[in-house]
Amino acid sequence: VSVNNYFYCLNRIKKFLTYSNDLRRHILKKYVYTINHKRIAINYLYFSMITGLSGAALATMIRLELAHPGSPFFKGDSLRYLQVVTAHGLIMVFFVVVPIFFGGFANFLIPYHVGSKDVAYPRLNSIGFWIQPCGYILLAKIGFLRPQFWRYYDKTSFSYPLLDKLKSSQFDEYRGEYLFFLDFIKKELNDQHSIFWKIRKVIEISQYRSFSFIPLKLLIWKDIISYPESFWYAADRVVQSRRKKVFVSKCSARTLTTAGW
Ligand code: HEM
């Protein structure tokens, strides 16, 4: 037995893959696809432990604000404080108390009380549990919002990386400086069936496919504007490099609706 033994290593890898796949299937079957009322009840209890911790984190934020009003934690943002209180209340009631009593205990005990093997519609019961994390994600966004702030962004900082990607995938021969100064041209270049690409394809396919250069270098608009001494180049740089001010709000309309503000 040695690590240099090819077949030995192959066998170990095979065994590991088999084992991990069995484990995956086991976990899925036992915890995710389960329709067993006791398993679902325990799932509810574990889930409410986690959500309870998040609710406790929010309670800690509330206590921090009440102990030191206007402290740097909330920065005197009263709306944010109210958001946290709301999220705390909603999480504690609907993701801790209700799941423990109705999801956990009721699911565990009632089938025993009525002398049944499971609840009626066990699959519905399972779905009832698994939609809960979805609801939690929607709700938790209220309390765990990112701060809202003004931000300056440089237009070029997000437009050039995107253009670079386009370039690498579409231009094999021309790898110079490209400046897309009109939406029309951008569209033409993106559209594989546009006249621009048709002409290139004809030239490529008919004679110069095997060569790595294009002998007929036509003077086209992008060459003119990408020429650094040209007026259009300078103008485009000025336009592109204007810093724009935007208000970054991590609170979407949906989140506000969910929160009921
Ligand atoms: C029933 C489930 C709830 C549990 C288990 C719970 C738990 C807690 C805990 C542990 C604290 C920290 C107290 C402290 O450190 O002083 C707290 C604070 C607070 N919770 Fe809840 N909470 C629940 C429901 C609610 C609801 C429904 C609301 C109202 C929306 C609410 C509003 C508050 C407020 C305003 C505080 C700060 C009060 C203070 O600390 O003096 N809670 N909660």
Automatic annotation (TrEMBL):
Q: Which InterPro entries match?
A: Cyt_c_oxase-like_su1_dom, Cyt_c_oxase-like_su1_sf, Cyt_C_Oxase_1
EC code: 7.1.1.9
Q: Which reaction does it catalyse?
A: 4 Fe(II)-[cytochrome c] + O2 + 8 H(+)(in) = 4 Fe(III)-[cytochrome c] + 2 H2O + 4 H(+)(out)
Q: Which Gene3D superfamilies match?
A: Cytochrome c oxidase-like, subunit I domain (1.20.210.10)
| Gene Ontology BP annotations | electron transport coupled proton transport; oxidative phosphorylation; respiratory electron transport chain
Gene Ontology CC entries for this record: mitochondrial inner membrane
Q: In which pathway does it act?
A: Energy metabolism; oxidative phosphorylation
Topology in the lipid bilayer is annotated as: Multi-pass membrane protein
Where does the protein end up? Answer: Mitochondrion inner membrane
Pfam name, any one: COX1
GO MF terms here are: cytochrome-c oxidase activity; heme binding; metal ion binding
Domain annotation Cytochrome oxidase subunit I profile: ranges:
22-162
Keyword Membrane on entry: yes
| Keyword Magnesium set for record | no
Main location (coarse class): mitochondrion
Give me the segments passing through the membrane: 44-64, 85-107, 127-145
For this UniProt record, the keywords arranged alphabetically read as follows: Copper, Electron transport, Heme, Iron, Membrane, Metal-binding, Mitochondrion, Mitochondrion inner membrane, Respiratory chain, Transmembrane, Transmembrane helix, Transport
Concerning its family, UniProt says:
Belongs to the heme-copper respiratory oxidase family.
Please explain the role this protein plays, according to its UniProt record. Answer: Component of the cytochrome c oxidase, the last enzyme in the mitochondrial electron transport chain which drives oxidative phosphorylation. The respiratory chain contains 3 multisubunit complexes succinate dehydrogenase (complex II, CII), ubiquinol-cytochrome c oxidoreductase (cytochrome b-c1 complex, complex III, CIII) and cytochrome c oxidase (complex IV, CIV), that cooperate to transfer electrons derived from NADH and succinate to molecular oxygen, creating an electrochemical gradient over the inner membrane that drives transmembrane transport and the ATP synthase.
For this entry, the protein name equals: Cytochrome c oxidase subunit 1
- Organism of origin: Glaucoma sp. Gnsp6
Its gene? cox1
